[in-house]
């Protein structure tokens, strides 16, 4: 049985999500262009640190599903106006997240789990891309 809590001991804590940016850079090398100042080796300290930021933002989104726009507004502004990240990259990172989740959960990564996370990540991606319109 999967424990979905964001509190200690749950699925969220047990995932190795800090490696998400490294996976994305490996699978989608074009995303490296946004990080010219990073040591882009798979498990560098900078990549792990950025992974923690990503996980923190996703955790905030999970805790505030009822108000994603307000929760992610500052992050959306940063990516749209300062960093000028192409919004397609949010979908690429979402795909990498699904892969990490599938590897971690194995048989427990059911079609229902996939769909639930797909909907969540699509909502997060849409909110992050709101400022681009």
Automatic annotation (TrEMBL):
<keyword id="KW-0408">Iron</keyword>
<dbReference type="GO" id="GO:0019825">
    <property type="term" value="F:oxygen binding"/>
</dbReference>
<dbReference type="InterPro" id="IPR050056">
    <property type="entry name" value="Hemoglobin_oxygen_transport"/>
</dbReference>
<protein>
    <recommendedName>
        <fullName>Globin domain-containing protein</fullName>
    </recommendedName>
</protein>
<keyword id="KW-0813">Transport</keyword>
<dbReference type="GO" id="GO:0043177">
    <property type="term" value="F:organic acid binding"/>
</dbReference>
<dbReference type="Pfam" id="PF00042">
    <property type="entry name" value="Globin"/>
</dbReference>
<dbReference type="InterPro" id="IPR000971">
    <property type="entry name" value="Globin"/>
</dbReference>
<dbReference type="GO" id="GO:0020037">
    <property type="term" value="F:heme binding"/>
</dbReference>
<dbReference type="InterPro" id="IPR009050">
    <property type="entry name" value="Globin-like_sf"/>
</dbReference>
<keyword id="KW-0479">Metal-binding</keyword>
<dbReference type="InterPro" id="IPR002338">
    <property type="entry name" value="Hemoglobin_a-typ"/>
</dbReference>
<keyword id="KW-0349">Heme</keyword>
<dbReference type="GO" id="GO:0046872">
    <property type="term" value="F:metal ion binding"/>
</dbReference>
<dbReference type="GO" id="GO:0005344">
    <property type="term" value="F:oxygen carrier activity"/>
</dbReference>
<dbReference type="GO" id="GO:0072562">
    <property type="term" value="C:blood microparticle"/>
</dbReference>
<dbReference type="InterPro" id="IPR012292">
    <property type="entry name" value="Globin/Proto"/>
</dbReference>
<feature type="domain" description="Globin">
    <location>
        <begin position="1"/>
        <end position="133"/>
    </location>
</feature>
<dbReference type="GO" id="GO:0031720">
    <property type="term" value="F:haptoglobin binding"/>
</dbReference>
<dbReference type="GO" id="GO:0005833">
    <property type="term" value="C:hemoglobin complex"/>
</dbReference>
<dbReference type="GO" id="GO:0031838">
    <property type="term" value="C:haptoglobin-hemoglobin complex"/>
</dbReference>
<comment type="similarity">
    <text>Belongs to the globin family.</text>
</comment>
<keyword id="KW-0561">Oxygen transport</keyword>
<dbReference type="GO" id="GO:0042744">
    <property type="term" value="P:hydrogen peroxide catabolic process"/>
</dbReference>
<dbReference type="GO" id="GO:0004601">
    <property type="term" value="F:peroxidase activity"/>
</dbReference>
